[in-house]
């Protein structure tokens, strides 16, 4: 059983994005590969607006996942949760507003995240300044970028793969990194990585927007190449 305490949660439009993206992908993965891992997702002390968000997110989730979600409002959730779990497994700090010490697990509260520590993009790192290039992928289509080392960010969900081809016209794509068929977006923190080029040819970063009906996927990317001195000399000579 997975229990999430929603005490102090305030409405934010990003909650809907999170449900449609990251949580949807996570729940789908668990349902498909670890069917018996989680019996129930229980939300306790849920604010009233959670019902509205749930009505939006519910149709997007697999049927098996929907059946596992239990929402407990602010009124009687302490009594209701005791019908599902033993007091020894529930946090003692839930006793603060109770007359009796019912919950017995000595667990630490989660700490608030300092918003100043969250990732913030540099205003100078834009397409207009030349720091990034931009690739637009139409709904239902896919595209690719040829590069060696990549850094990119997107404004929506996407599929992604990394391949090698001997030349631009080749139809034989050798997989360098397994294709991920659904990555939640938008990517608030740019994704980055590097690859040591051991073969002469083209390294191809593949993107797909085939799951989308209307949204044109915008991908901002930056190519960097780290050459050693021998490679730099060879590049100058040739």
From TrEMBL:
This is CRAL-TRIO domain-containing protein. InterPro entries: CRAL-TRIO_dom, CRAL-TRIO_dom_sf, CRAL-TRIO_domain, Ctg-1-like_C, GOLD_dom_sf. It comes from Meloidogyne enterolobii. Residues 1-102 form the CRAL-TRIO domain. Transmembrane segments: none annotated.
């Amino acid at each position: 059983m997975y229990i999430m305490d929603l005490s102090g949660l305030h409405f934010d439009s990003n909650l809907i994005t999170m449900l449609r993206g990251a949580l949807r992908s996570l729940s789908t993965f668990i349902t498909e590969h670890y069917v018996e891992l989680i019996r129930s997702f229980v939300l306790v002390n849920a604010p009233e607006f959670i019902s509205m968000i749930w009505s939006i997110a519910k149709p997007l989730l697999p049927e098996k996942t929907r059946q596992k979600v239990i929402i407990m409002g602010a009124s009687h959730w302490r009594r209701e949760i005791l019908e599902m779990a033993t007091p020894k497994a529930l946090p003692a700090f839930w006793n603060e507003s109770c007359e009796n010490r019912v919950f017995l697990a000595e667990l630490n509260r989660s700490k608030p995240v300092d918003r100043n520590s969250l990732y913030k993009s540099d205003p100078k790192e834009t397409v207009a300044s030349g720091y990034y290039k931009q690739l637009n992928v139409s709904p239902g289509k896919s595209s690719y970028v040829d590069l060696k080392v990549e850094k990119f960010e997107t404004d929506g969900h996407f599929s992604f793969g990394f391949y090698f081809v001997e030349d631009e016209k080749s139809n034989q794509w050798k997989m360098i990194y397994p294709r991920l068929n659904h990555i939640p977006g938008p990517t608030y923190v740019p994704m980055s990585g590097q690859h040591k080029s051991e073969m002469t040819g083209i390294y191809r970063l593949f993107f797909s927007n085939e799951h989308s009906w209307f949204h044109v996927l915008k991908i901002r990317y930056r190519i960097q190449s780290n050459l050693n001195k021998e490679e730099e000399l060879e590049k100058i000579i040739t």
